[in-house]
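Tutorial handout. Part one gives the primary structure; part two gives the three-dimensional structure as tokens.
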Amino acid sequence: MQVAVVTFDGFNELDSFIASALINRCRKDGLEAFITTPTPVVTSMNGVEVTGQRPMEFVTEADVVLIGSGVKTRDVVADDRLTSRLSLDPSRQLIGSQCSGALVLARLGLLGGMPACTDMTSRPFVEACDVTVLDAPFHAEGNIATAGGCLASQYLATWVITRMLGEDAARDVIGYVAPVGENQETVARAMRAIHAGEAVLG
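Part two.
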């Protein structure tokens, strides 16, 4: 089971690295995440250069595709050649976005009429795509999920692990990385966020 964490130039380190690091704690169970980039090297919003682990074309074979956020996302959605490389299929893939990544899902026509979560800076641009933005950190409908706020990337990872390996696996991962002495409440918060996000309209 492979996860593409799509990471563009100008990316937010918290968005890409938290999700990939949490998911990669499940390697022994066959779930593995890869930083997936449109160019061999991308530079973060804070100047960190990262070599991609997989090329953009990897998204077509991945079981899960997570679209990361960054300061250049509006440039991404304006680039037809770049977005054409994101051939995604929600009928067979789990697809998620982090913060401004919701703009990419909207650009690809994947949100349909569903509301989305995003960060406060990106909110007006997502709303300009005729998408209702929720005051919530996480929302999912079927195989599509969105998360808003950098640290909500843990919820996106929790959703992926839960869907691919089950809730116990997700609880184990979140419990392990939680601040010492806050394990139970951190796990409970993460599970509450994804359960509430999946039930918000139902």
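Part three, for discussion. The first strand starts at residue 2 and ends at 6. The two ends are 29 Å apart (CA to CA).
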